[in-house]
Write a structure and sequence with these properties.
disordered C terminus; mainly alpha; 2 domains
């Protein structure tokens, strides 16, 4: 992945996490600055990156959707698409070492319970961490399963592919 692709993924992930209330607006401004340094450059991204920490809480709400749109990225307002995008962002953060497998499952389970189909297995794995002392599984085994699930989620395309219907 090139640095601009990584910057776009980071910006998309931060936007999803911010829209779900998982990170601060200033974190979005920081990643916008990183995106500029990586070579992405649009008027909206420059305006977003120019926000001070004090302005971020007030201005990111208005500036982020336009900046993402200029880059061909999607702004996910709160809802199931935003939940899925945030889950995939959390998966990438866990794989990057920013969260432990246990923290990852806990955060997902806490936010979605057993209600979101995409995260049901993660909720079950979070439950398994809670009963490790009473079963025959180890932390390493559950961690490995969580890591496999995170890889599956992170590998999912961020933009749905167009359906390919073959003519009959």
């Amino acid at each position: 992945m090139t640095s601009t692709e990584a910057a776009m993924t980071a910006l998309q992930d931060h936007a999803a996490l911010w829209s779900m209330g998982e990170i601060r607006a200033s974190d979005v401004v920081d990643v916008a600055c990183d995106a500029l340094v990586a070579g992405l450059d649009t008027p909206g991204l420059r305006i977003l990156a120019a926000c001070t920490r004090a302005e971020a809480d007030y201005d990111v709400h208005d500036l982020l959707p336009a900046a993402l749109d200029e880059l061909g990225l999607t702004f996910h307002p709160v809802g199931s698409a935003g939940q899925e995008a945030a889950t995939r962002a959390f998966a990438r953060r866990m794989l990057a070492g920013e969260l432990t497998p246990r923290e990852f499952t806990f955060r997902i389970h806490e936010r979605h319970g057993h209600e979101l189909t995409l995260t049901e297995r993660l909720a079950e794995l979070d439950d398994e961490y809670d009963i490790l002392d009473y079963g025959d599984r180890t932390v390493d085994q559950v961690d490995a399963e969580v890591t496999a699930e995170a890889r599956r989620l992170a590998a999912h395309p961020t933009v749905p592919a167009e359906p390919t219907d073959s003519p009959s």
